Amino acid sequence: MKKIVLKTALLYFFVMVGHSFSEKINSIEISGNKRIADETIILLSKTSLNNEITDEEQLNNIFKNIYKTNFFSEVKVKFSKNILFIEVTENPIIQEIQFKGVKAKKTKKAIYDNLLLKNKSSFVSHYIDKDILNISNSLKKSGYYFSKVELEIKENTNNTVNLIYNITLGEKASIKNIKFLGNKIFKDRKLRNVIVSEEDKFWKFITGNIYIDENRINLDARLLTNFYKNKGFYNATVKSSFATYTGSNNFELLFTIDSGEKIYFNDFELILPDNYEKKPFNKVIKKFSSLKGEPYSFREISKIIKIIETISVDFQYDFLDADFTENLIGKNKLDTKIIVKESEDKFYINEINIFGNSITEEVVLRNNLLISEGDALNKLVYEKSINNLRSLNIFETVKSNIVNISDQNKKDIEIEITEKATGEISAGAGVGTSGGTIGGGIKENNYLGKGIVLSADMTLNEESIKGTFDYYNPNFKNSDKSLALGIKSNVTDKLADFGYKSSDSKFHLGTGYQQYDDFYLAPSFSISYDKVETSNSASDNLKKQKGDYFTTNIEYGIDYDKRNQKYQPSSGFRHRFNQIIPVYSKELAFRNTYKYNKYFELNENLVSGISFYASAITALDSAEDVRISQRLWVPNSLLRGFEPGRIGPIDGDDHVGGNYASALSFNTDLPIFQSWQEADIKYFYDAANVWGTDYRNYEDDSSKIRSSTGLAIDWYTPIGPLTLSWAKAITKKSTDKTESIRFNIGTSF
């Protein structure tokens, strides 16, 4: 039908203009249009009154200009007696597109996004075959290789149509076997752990990676290439990657690999401009010195690039550039030369344009950028700025581009974000030897679109209830300073068993700001009220603490943060120190706390970390005890396998906490189910202790280090993230209370 219409239109056109002329257009007459205005058609024709028509080609262009808009199924053009006649037949408008036979919203969206014909657009008949093919290809990416697609066109009134795609999905095409051709170095089992695609096994149905997906296969090829290059095979390539049909809805996935020879790092040369300080680049030289004689690794080269990037940022080399030259020496040695130089392309930032933030205020994004209009365009600082936005954890995606403008010395930066649900609801529980603990909370990470974090949570067990409310504004009054306030309340009722009850509440108000690069200060002020009640069964030490306590404190925190990113870091470290100084109190007790975190990237997907914690509280008056509600405990996250507050010194039968607490924790990702994108499995080892008290009669066990080991799973389920940990106490004391299982689940809104 479309071909007949097109030929007829062209034939009509040529018949009417098959002679030579040179005349002006005095009038334009439009006919056949109902929805589209005359003025719009004239605009689309790219002609106007008083234009001169000199040949047939000009009329041909008018015809093409109108027809290619896809607004019309037929276009006729005639020029006679200085009048330009344009007759059109409008295409119908698509009122609605339906997909019958498909229930999953995600699949429907993937199909619709790839269509040429959209809701409320013109119905162009020659797009039908293309869209049916697009639907088929979209379904193939979801594993439906044997789907059937038929189109039903329903004509409505007012020249509109409904497009109804009747889809028969069929069975998903599974991967029966994965084979690696040309691989003589690594076991196939090892390579299967590198790629994302998986063989169809009954226990792997949950990952979705057992089905054929062209995009996933392309990713697999890149992963294999990087794997070989990181093992020393500098020239490794995946020559082909494809799936072959084996019958019964099954495919065989084949990768042909050419590893080449194993290559080793040899000599290294670093060339710097004369005006550059040499000392910062010693890190690069030291890194390469440690690599000589080691197998070539693309990952190690990436680390060196990151070191140079850090130097550029720290020493404000605005136009730093680096050229890498690699030369193969003999059969298996590689010399590397790095030439650090001033970039030939020196640009400044003209405008920073931000798109996609319908909820988040633009000032929130700009406050997290390290660049501004008018600054030198340092690509390394630019990349770090974009990473800062990703670290906010309030966006689904953050995309950016550097755009050329008319001014050759300047560039525009375009940042496009996709916002995500920032509300969170969570619930958790722990099961131990003395009962259970349950808790829940609610959190909003982008309140009012200002990047403000609001959170509230509550934890209950058989003898205590704890509640907190926190407000945090990272850019208070659009400045580089933060504002934090919080309210905490805790009631611990042990009257029946140990003879005391503690009820304490605390209000906290503070700020924070960056003093130097990656160095932050956080002064604050707090007011607290604590009431201690005792019974006749309480120990003499506890009875002395009965009463009401009103305390005001000043606090300050120091934070030195060199993590590569704030959210889910993979490298770098962080030091934090906090001190609480009493201003007004019945008892004067100073509290000091130090925290350290270090992250190691084992490979692209595996990260290890070490956490250290130490805290001490000291009463200035040696005759006074640090009261029960102020005593120290090890944070739950650093000593798994034990119930919170159930280790350390005891007074009678009661755990009373200590003046000192410390913990060391090691975590590492395990290469188990590495291809399962929805879950991370970690191994951990925790060691901690609580010791020291002012009490005269207590059992001290300061020499007994508590330790535990176990597994933790972070699983991104359809209803929200689930954290599950199983821990086994290794060293403990008979008075300790253990906890083997703890879980937490949340969802977004």
CATH fold title of the largest domain: Porin
Count of spatially separate domains: 6
Strand-pairing-aware structural class? alpha+beta
Radius of gyration: 35 Å
Number of helices: 12
**Helical residues, percent:** 10-25%
Largest sheet: 16 strands, antiparallel, barrel
Major beta sheet, strand line-up: 18-19-20-21-22-23-24-25-26-27-28-31-32-33-34-35
Low-confidence stretches: 1-20
CATH superfamily of the largest domain: membrane protein fhac: a member of the omp85/tpsb transporter family
Number of strands: 35
CATH architecture name of the largest domain: Beta Barrel
| CATH level 1 class label of the largest domain | Mainly Beta
Shape descriptor reads globular
Distance between the termini: 50 Å
Strand content: over 45%
Question: Can you characterise this structure?
Answer:
This protein has six domains: 2-90, membrane protein fhac (Ubiquitin-like (UB roll)), CATH 3.10.20; 93-168, Ubiquitin-like (UB roll) (Roll); 174-258, membrane protein fhac (Ubiquitin-like (UB roll), Roll); 264-342, membrane protein fhac (Ubiquitin-like (UB roll), Roll); 348-419, membrane protein fhac (Ubiquitin-like (UB roll)), CATH 3.10.20; 494-748, Porin. Helix content is 18%, strand content 45%. It is an alpha+beta fold. The longest helix is centred in the first third of the chain and has 17 residues, at 214-230. Helix 8 packs antiparallel against helix 9 (298-314).
